[in-house]
Amino acid sequence: MPNRLFPHRGDYQLDKRTFSKDLVAGLTVAVVALPLALGFGITSGASAAAGLTTAIIAGFIAAVFGGSKYQVSGPTGAMTVVLLPIVHHYGIKAIPFLGLIAGAMVIAMGLLKLGAVINRVPWSVVEGFTVGIAFVIALQQIPLALGIPKAEGERSLFVAWGTIKNAISAGIHWQTLSVVVLTLAVKFAHPHLFKLLRIRIHIPASFVAIVTALIVVQVLSLDVATIGDIPRSLGSWRGSDIALADIPHLLWPAFLIALLCAIESLLSARVADGMVKTAHADRYNPNRELFGQGLATSIASVFGGLPATGAIARTSVNVRAQAKTRMAAIIHAVTLLFIALIAAPWVSHIPAPAIAGVLIGTSYRILNPRSLKESLQTTKREATVLVTTAVATLAIDLIWGIAIGIVLYGALHAKNSKSKKSA
User: Fold this and answer.
1) What is the DSSP letter of 232?
2) Tens digits of residue pLDDT in 34-57
3) Using N-to-C axis directions, what is the helix angle for 247-276 and 286-302, rounded to 10°?
4) CA atoms of 47 and 65, how far apart (whole Å)
C-alpha cells in the first residue's frame, strides 16, 4: 500500500500563527456544522444523535487520513437523499452494513487510483448537481417546517408536494412556521445587523439564528417540536446489526452510497482548492482523499453514525475562515465531541423548525444565485448541461443526475467537434 495514502509529518504546521488560524477556523466550522449535522441526521431517517456522531467520527478520521488540507467531512444533504429510501425499505439496522461495505468500496477506489478518473467530471455537471442538491435539501425540510410527518414516497419533489397537501388539509401549524421564518430572517439579516452595530467578532449566522429561535420559543412557550435527546456519548458499536444474509440485496445500495461519497468528496476538495487558488504542488491528493473518506464512512457507520462525504458548505466555511492545515477540520471534530459530551442537554432543546430554517438557508447559499446566473450566461451548451443535470438530480436521483449530465456533455461536445471539422 503506497505510503502517500497515510498521514505524514508534513501534513501539520504547528507554528503559533498557523495553529491560531486553524483554531479559529475549526471553532467556526464546528458552530456551523452542529445544526447541519443534527438536521441531516433527522432528515436521513436516523436521528440527530446519528448525525452528530457522524460529524465527529467521520470528520476526525477524514481530516487525518484524507487528501485535502481544507476538507471538512460529515453527513450531507446529498447523502440523505440516497439514505432516505434505503432506510425506508430496509430500516435503520441496514446502515452499519451499508456504510461498512460502501466505505470498503471507496477505499478500493483509492487503492486502484480511480481518483483522477472521478475528478474529471465536467464542471457544468458539477454545478448542475450542486443546484439540484440545493433544491433537494430545501424540499426535505418541508415536514419539519410545517410540523407534520412527511408524505409517503421516495422522490423529494413528490414527497414535498404530498406533505404540503397534508398540511393544508390538517391545518397549518403557524407557531412552527413562524419559527422557520424567524430563523431565516435572523440568518440572512445577521451580516447586515452586525455591520450596522459595528460588531467585529465573527459569530456564524446559523448559530445566531438557532440561539435566537431557542430563546424566543422558550420565552413565549411556543408549542413546537424539539430535536430530542442527544446521548452524552460518542456512539455505540453497531457492528452486531450486520447480517450476512443481507448482502445480496444491499450491495447495489452500498455501491450507490460509495459512488456518491467518492464524487461529492472529490468535488468538494476540488472546490476548496479553487477557492484558495492552491499551487499545483499543494493540491489535494484524490486517491488519498478516497482512502480517507472510505475509512471515515466505514468506521462512523458501525459506531452509530451514517455514511459521510466531504461537505461543500462546511469546507467553504473552513476556507473563508482562513484555515491553513487539516488541523482546522480536526479541531472542528473535537469541538463537536465536547458539545456532545458536555452540552447535550441544552442541544436537545433546539426547536426542530429552527433546524429546518437553517438548512433551507444553507440550500440557498449552496445554490448561490449570482454564480448560477453567471454560469447560465456562458455558452448554450454548458447551460444546457447544467440545467439538465439539475432537473435530473431533482426529479430522479443524484447518481442518475450525474450520469445524464456526463452523457449529455459528451454528446454535445462531440457534436460541436464534428461541426467544427465540417466547417
Assistant:
1) S
2) 988 998 898 888 888 999 999 999
3) 130
4) 26
Q: Which amino acid is at 158?
A: F
CA 340/CA 335 separation, integer angstroms:
9
Sign of the CA dihedral running 255, 70, 135, 38: positive
The arithmetic mean of pLDDT across residues 59-76, rounded, is 95
Q: Which three cell numbers stand for residue 98?
A: 451499508
Running DSSP on this structure, what letter comes out for residue 234?
Answer: S
CB 286 within 8 A of CB 66: no
Q: Which residues pair with 309 in a beta bridge?
A: 74
Q: Find the range with the poorest average confidence among 244-258, 259-273, 387-401.
A: 244-258
Identify which has the larger pLDDT, 286 or 45: 286
Residue 257 grid cell: 452510497
Question: b vs e for 304-330, b when ≥16 Cβ sit within 10 Å of the residue's Cβ?
Answer: bbbbbbbbbbbbbbbbebebbbbbbbb
Q: How far apart are CA 63 and CA 60, in angstroms?
A: 5
> Mean pLDDT score of the chain, rounded to an integer?
87
pLDDT confidence band for 223 (50 / 70 / 90): very high
Average pLDDT, integer, range 270-296 = 85
Residue 151 · residue 162 · CB < 8 Å: yes
- Of 12, 68, 64, 107, whose CA–CA distance to 284 is shortest? 68
Q: What is the domain partition of the chain in residue ranges? A: 9-224+234-362+370-422
The reported pLDDT for the residue numbered 1 is 41
User: For 15, which DSSP code?
Assistant: S
Give the closest residue to 211 by CA, choosing from 383, 31, 393, 373. 31
Q: Which residue has the cell 449535522?
A: 37
Rounded CA gap, 47 and 306, in Å? 10
Q: Which residues pair with 391 in a beta bridge?
A: none
**Residue 281: how many other CB atoms lie within 10 Å:** 5
Radius of gyration for the chain, computed over Cα atoms and rounded to the nearest angstrom? 21
φ, ψ at 74 (rounded to 5°): 165, -165
Determine the Cα–Cα distance for residues 394 and 400; give it in Å rounded to an integer.
10
Q: Pairing state of beta strands 73-74 and 309-310?
A: antiparallel
Residue 292 in contact with residue 65, Cβ under 8 Å? Answer: yes
Residue 338 has what DSSP assignment? H
The pLDDT value given to residue 46? 87
